[in-house]
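task queued by scheduler; priority normal; single chain, no ligands, no partner chains; default sampling; output format set to C-alpha cells
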Amino acid sequence: MAAHSAMAEEYKVVRVVDGDTIDVRSGLSNTTTRVRLLNVDARRRWTPNRPVGCLGPEASQRLTELLPKGSPVDLAFDVERTDRYGRTLAGVYANGELVNAQLAAGGLAVR
C-alpha cells in the first residue's frame, strides 16, 4: 500500500455500504465515489440468495462507528486504482489512523 501522505483533495463519508466499502464525497468536485478498502476483506452483510456472512453485520457496524456520516477521511491510493467492479481502491485514514488496519486488528476483516 502507498504511504499515507497529505492529499490535496478532501473527502467526507456519505455512507457505509458494508464492512469494507464506503461512499465518499469529494470536496473539490462534489462527486460521490464508491471506495473499497484496500488489502482487507470483510464478510458481507447480505448477498442475494446466500446467508449473511459470519461477522458481516459486526464489520459493517464497526466501520460505521469508525466512519460516521460526514466524517472527513484521507485516501491513499496504490498503483492499481480500481477493482474489477469499478470501485476505487484506497487506504482510508480517519483521525490519522488507517481504518483498514483497525478492521483487521479487530478480527472483522482479513488481510
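post-processing summary
- The first strand starts at residue 11 and ends at 18.
- The chain has one domain: 11-105.
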